[in-house]
């Protein structure tokens, strides 16, 4: 059985990862726009808070498939790898929290 505070801890971590995600997303978009304009244009010139579902799908594909690696940009590689880790951990924490909520 998990301690009672684990749900609150998971929720706090979700918020922290959410903030970290947007900081990294801002850096990723800036790096693409400033150093890899062709790739950024190919991605449809995504915006950070544009709210377009296509932007999210293109970004996730770019990260999950590791398309950033072909750019040969070590800074973008670090950012994108960090985002992939956050995505995995965030998903696991979210599922854990969801299970706890439904277990009661």
Describe this structure in words.
Helix 1 packs antiparallel against helix 4. The radius of gyration is 16 Å and the shape is elongated. The protein is mainly alpha-helical and 104 residues long. The protein has one domain. The chain is built from four helices and no strands. 8% of the residues are buried.
Q: How are the elements arranged and paired?
A:
Blueprint: H1 6-35, H2 37-42, H3 53-64, H4 74-103
Summarize it.
By secondary structure, the protein is mainly α.
Comma- or semicolon-separated keywords:
104 residues, 4 helices, mainly alpha
Terminal residue distance: 12 Å
Helical residue percent band: over 70%
Major beta sheet summary: none
Q: Report the uncertain regions.
A: none
Provide the residue-averaged pLDDT: 87
Structural class, please? mainly alpha
Percentage beta strand:
under 5%
Total domain modules: 1
Shape summary: elongated
Number of helices: 4
């Amino acid at each position: 059985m998990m301690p009672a505070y684990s749900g609150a801890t998971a929720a706090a971590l979700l918020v922290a990862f959410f903030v970290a995600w947007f900081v990294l997303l801002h850096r990723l978009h800036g790096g693409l726009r400033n150093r890899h304009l062709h790739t950024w244009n190919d991605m449809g010139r995504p915006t950070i808070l544009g709210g377009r579902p296509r932007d999210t799908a293109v970004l996730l594909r770019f990260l999950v498939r590791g398309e950033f690696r072909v750019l040969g940009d070590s800074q973008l590689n670090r950012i994108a790898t960090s985002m992939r880790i956050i995505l995995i951990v965030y998903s696991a924490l979210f599922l854990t929290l969801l299970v706890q909520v439904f277990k009661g």
